[in-house]
User: What shape does this take?
Amino acid sequence: MQQSLCKLHESIEQCTHCSLHTTRRHAIIGEGNPRAPIVVIGEAPGAAEDKIGRPFVGKSGQLLEKIFAACGFSRQHHIFLTNIVRCRPPDNRVPSEAEVQACIPFLRRQIQLIDPQIIITLGGTALQRYMEDKNLRVSGLRGQWLTKEKPLVMPVYHPAALLRNPRLKPIAWADFKKVIDKYRELVDQDHIAPHY
Ligand code: SF4
Assistant: This one.
């Protein structure tokens, strides 16, 4: 499994399947435990991620780290962080249809190899593209488990939305508490979450 994941990650790093490869500094493969019980999916790398070559290292990523810490989750043990597309769209625009279609097979394969119990989608693009339904809205579905079988899918607000509108933070925390409950049910009944 590890070898397959390494090969996949090599393919992502060298990928030229869509035009985003011409403007990227780094293709972001993802980060975390390759056997993580939880995979977290965002939309695309931003400027900080493209510069450093790691996912979720900008302001949104820092807020996400705080949320993970409150949940008792770490990138090293519990989480694998990834995105719908792996190269930064210029000016942080939403990835185009062609870019998503070129890139999403990497995500499907990555999830197949990691084999998580739980998937968290951050924001609308991740929700719609992972679930293959452009009509889905985070505001209507957040906090609900969207699948009945493994991997269970939980849509939550993107941390960038929480930074723009802090009134959404308690709502997002309620959703993450459901993830903690499910993690205790499926993975570790003794899991300690410092704030729950
Ligand atoms: Fe390849 Fe995805 Fe980067 Fe496009 S965004 S070049 S498909 S890795």
Remarks:
- Residues 12, 15-18, 20-21, 27, 85-87, 99, 102-103 surround iron/sulfur cluster (CB under 6 Å).
